[in-house]
Amino acid sequence: MGNDLDELVEGQEPWYKGPIKYILGVFLILMIVLWLIPIYSVKLDPEPLEIPSIAEVVPSDISVEETHFNDISMAMVNGNDEVIKGVADKIVVKACGNRGRVCHAKALFYFVRDNFEYINDPTAYEYVKTAKESLVSGGGDCDDSSVLLANLLDAIGVRIRFVFIPGHVYVQAYLPDVLNRYKQDGDMVNLDPACKSCDFGEISWKSAGKETRVVG
To answer: By the 8 A CB rule, do 86 and 153 touch?
Structure first.
C-alpha cells in the first residue's frame, strides 16, 4: 500500500506543468495590461498636477491702460504681450512641466475657471475687459473670462475662436491631439471658463443646442 502511494506521488506532474501554469500566465498578462493602461492614459490624456493661484503667477505691477471695448473681436487676442506670455508660461510650467500641449491647455482653462469670479457688466452697456485687466481684477463676466483664456492659449501657440450663443460666449481651441471624446467640431474643443461646473471639453446644458455664431 505504501509503495503504491509513493508511486502515485512520484507519477504526478509538477505544479508548474499542470493547469495552474495557464492560470498564472493569464494573471501575469492582466497585471502587465493594468500596469500599462495608466501609462498610456497619462500620455494620451494628461492632467495638470496642480493649478496655481493668480497671486502665484501674476506680477503685482501690471500696467493696464484704460479701455472701453463693447464687443469681443480677435483684435483683443494678443499672446505676444509680454505679461500675458509670462503668465501663461508660469501656469503651464507649474501645472504640467513637460507633459505636453494638451495638459497645458487644460491647465490654462482650469486656471481661469477656478480663479476668475463672475461679475456682471454695468447695466447701461457691455464692457469687455482686456486680458490684463482681468488678471488685475480677478473677475468679470463670460466675455472677460473668454478673452482672458483666449489670450493665454494664444500665448502657448493654441489657435482659438469665440463661440457666441444668445446671452453667452465661450472659447473653442484647436487641439488635434486630444482624445476624440473632447472634440465637438473637427479638432476643436469647447472651453467655457465662466461655467464653474464645466470640465475641459464641456459646456453647460443651458448652452447646448442653441444657435451659434463663430468668430475667429
So the answer is: no
This prediction's pTM: 0.80
**What 8-state DSSP symbol labels residue 116?**
P
Q: Which of 169, 173, 148 is nearest to 77 (CA)?
A: 148
Distance CA 72, CA 66 (A): 16
The answer to whether 171 and 194 have CB atoms below 8 angstroms apart is no
Q: How far is CA 114 from CA 53, 64, 169, 190, 199, in A?
A: 9, 23, 18, 17, 11
Cβ-based neighbour number of residue 209 at 10 Å:
8
Instruction: Write down the residue that cell numbers 482650469 correspond to.
Output: 110
Mean pLDDT in residue range 122-149? 92
Helix ranges restricted to H, the chain: 2-11, 20-44, 54-57, 82-95, 101-115, 131-137, 142-155
35-62: pLDDT as tens digits? 544 444 445 799 999 999 999 999 988 8
